[in-house]
């Protein structure tokens, strides 16, 4: 494994996302994240 692979800076550089959310909010959270990344409305992604 590469040096520093578990460091936040390494993950950010590689484009990794990490989030903690309630399971009941997971669908909404994923839709919102995808909407931000694709520049669409959250309603069109979910």
Describe this structure in words.
- With 46 residues, this protein is mainly alpha-helical.
- The chain has a domain at 20-46.
- 52% of the residues lie in helices and 0% in strands.
- The longest helix is centred in the last third of the chain and has 13 residues, at 26-38.
- The mean pLDDT is 86.
Instruction: Return the structural class.
Output: mainly alpha
| Overall form | elongated
Helix residue percentage: 40-55%
Termini separation comes to 35 Å
Draw up the topology in text.
Layout: H1 8-14, H2 26-38, H3 42-45
Brief rundown of the structure:
The protein is mainly α and 46 residues long. The chain has helices spanning 8-14, 26-38, 42-45. Helices cover 52% and strands 0% of the residues.
């Amino acid at each position: 494994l590469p040096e520093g692979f578990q460091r936040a800076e390494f993950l950010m550089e590689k484009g990794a996302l990490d989030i903690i959310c309630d399971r009941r909010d997971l669908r909404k959270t994923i839709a919102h994240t995808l909407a931000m990344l694709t520049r669409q409305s959250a309603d069109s992604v979910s």
